Recover the amino acids of this structure.
């Protein structure tokens, strides 16, 4: 078991984690509460997969806020390598150091080289920053967008939460950070990485849960409008769309209607604001062809 870095007296189970998250306006179900509790208690990374917009990234931010620790985010992309995740040397400042040392008459090569690799010239990237700052939350966001080789790198780092800088030595976390990896499943992650992690599939919330999220995040939105928007979004998700809307799009749509002063979602207001919830022309065309009246029809 990992050393507890949170105030464990009031976080004695999954229900307490759910309550903590509720306190920072992240309405978590029992499943994600249990997964987050186990990740905390066991000191294991948590891999969260799901459709875009279901709240994977927001979970890491909420855990950071709930436990009052810093969040370090590594946004993954194709071509990401270890130096961009761990550390790099500040080359311009190193050159300035050499020039200053030369101007001062320093000629000893060993002394000059030692001065070049001083800690002040090391640029810590998100993974190293999280290791040094722990307790912390490290978010490895959209890990599926990185190349396959990056999985092997992560596996090594997450095994012992330590980084070796050849010029400085080994830097290890005093307390392992809570690591949250998110994936949209654009590619399959290596089995070895998955085995290292606890796993949770985060699905779209059910109707009542999503209405509660809208009312919590946008308290000015009426219960009726929240119900209408969530029902309409649910029908959009059931349609054959290029990009079904997530919870973030539900919130955007409700917010847009609120700003416009709309009290009831009708075909006219829906048509004017549909671009807040659908972001592909093909999807907009498909919905207009099917008819907004059908989308907004009363009933579940």
């Amino acid at each position: 078991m990992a050393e507890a870095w949170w105030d464990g007296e009031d976080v004695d189970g999954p229900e307490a984690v759910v309550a903590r998250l509720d306190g920072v306006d992240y309405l978590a179900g029992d499943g994600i509460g249990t997964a987050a509790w186990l990740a905390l208690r066991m000191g294991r990374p948590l891999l969260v997969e799901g459709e875009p917009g279901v709240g994977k990234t927001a979970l890491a931010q909420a855990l950071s806020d709930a436990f009052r620790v810093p969040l370090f985010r590594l946004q993954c992309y194709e071509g990401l390598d270890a130096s961009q995740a761990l550390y790099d040397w500040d080359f311009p400042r190193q050159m300035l150091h050499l020039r200053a040392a030369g101007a001062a008459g320093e000629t000893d090569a060993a002394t000059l080289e030692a001065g070049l690799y001083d800690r002040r010239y090391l640029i810590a990237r998100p993974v190293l920053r999280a290791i040094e700052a722990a307790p912390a939350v490290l978010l490895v966001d959209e890990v599926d967008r990185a190349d396959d080789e990056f999985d092997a790198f992560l596996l090594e780092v997450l095994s012992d939460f330590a980084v070796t800088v050849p010029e400085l030595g080994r830097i290890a976390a005093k307390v392992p950070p809570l690591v949250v990896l998110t994936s949209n499943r654009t590619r399959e992650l290596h089995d070895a990485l998955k085995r290292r992690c606890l796993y949770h599939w985060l699905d779209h919330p059910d109707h009542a849960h999503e209405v509660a999220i809208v009312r919590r995040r946008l308290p000015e939105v009426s219960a009726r409008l929240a119900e209408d928007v969530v029902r309409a979004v649910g029908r959009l998700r059931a349609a054959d769309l290029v990009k079904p809307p997530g919870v973030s799009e539900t919130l955007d749509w409700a917010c847009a209607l609120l700003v416009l002063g709309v009290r009831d979602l009708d075909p006219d207001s829906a048509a004017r604001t549909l671009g807040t919830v659908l972001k592909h022309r093909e999807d907009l065309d498909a919905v207009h062809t099917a008819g907004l009246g059908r989308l907004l029809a009363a009933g579940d």
